[in-house]
Amino acid sequence: MEFSQKVIDSLLSAGGKALATTGKHGVNVVPVSTVRVEGGKILLMNYFFRKTLDNILEQPKVALAFWSGLEGYQIKGSVEYIDSGTVFEEANKWITDNVADRTLLGLLVLTPEEVLNISPGAN
Q1: 40 within domain boundaries
Q2: Where are the beta strands (DSSP E) in 11-99?
């Protein structure tokens, strides 16, 4: 599924981002800091996920909400976790160059399936 440049720009500049999962730990919602968009997929950097990762490994469906002020979106989709390989190494280099105080443990690769505008009055 394609999503618009407006949604991508909103995601990359969002003041708040939260990822929701479900699985053996029940519903879990965590803040997200570092996000990149590549090839129609959203890369979420894992620095400290525990329950979130357990949930994803059990149930790879997630929702990512992001907003600035009163404008925001929710993206629902499937996620794959990777902690090795070319994509991981490229992301790790980017983190080393741009967010040097963080250690990348893995990547959540989110494939969007639905985009919802969660801004007041949008629907």
Answers
A1: yes
A2: 16-21, 28-31, 35-38, 41-46, 61-68, 71-82
